[in-house]
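It is worth pausing here to work through a concrete case rather than discussing structure prediction in the abstract. The textbook approach is simple: state the sequence, then state the predicted structure, then interpret. We follow exactly that order.
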Amino acid sequence: MFLLFYPLRVIGIVAVSYAVCVALMYELIRRYWPDHPTNLKGLALGGGTVLSLALLVFAYWGWRKIWEVCPKLNEWLFPDLNGRWDMTIHYRKPGGVGEISATAVIKQNWLTMSMEVLAQDSDSQTLAIVPKKDSESGRAQLFYFYRVVPKKTSDGKSEPYEGAASLRFFAEGTKQLSGNYYTSVATDGHFKLVRQ
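Step two, the predicted structure:
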């Protein structure tokens, strides 16, 4: 989700804000406690350590607590998609069409995101996910690139292949992700995921 914001701008804002806070604290200490032996380097390094730990806690755990307290952030910024999803895969391939049920597990923190899909005949692993907000509708989207690894069953002929999907998040009613996908083995179809 960090990529939704301009990363260099965010890093710059945090760095400049921190430098201003250290300078203000140093000036306040110097002005109101002139006899206090304040070490500017120690103040900056100690504060930097605390800031680094706070940002680490926020990136991996804290943001979800903030989203729970203020659920509007799911709309304003990006939804918390963590968890298990019931998935229906509608497919088209040269031999015909069909439907498969699967389970998707989405793991998301402030810095990374992955979606693993567990189906009867195959599993998939994330190659890359790019979260995005649609500029016109404001709806959350995922551009999902993955590798499917077929389970070696009786035919034993299937080899791993790659795919790409564009999924849109629908928050009204039943929370779901859905969108079309395409694969490197000339199949395509539609994914529909409903949160368990």
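Step three, interpretation. The two ends are 22 Å apart (CA to CA). Residues 40-69 form the longest helix (30 residues).
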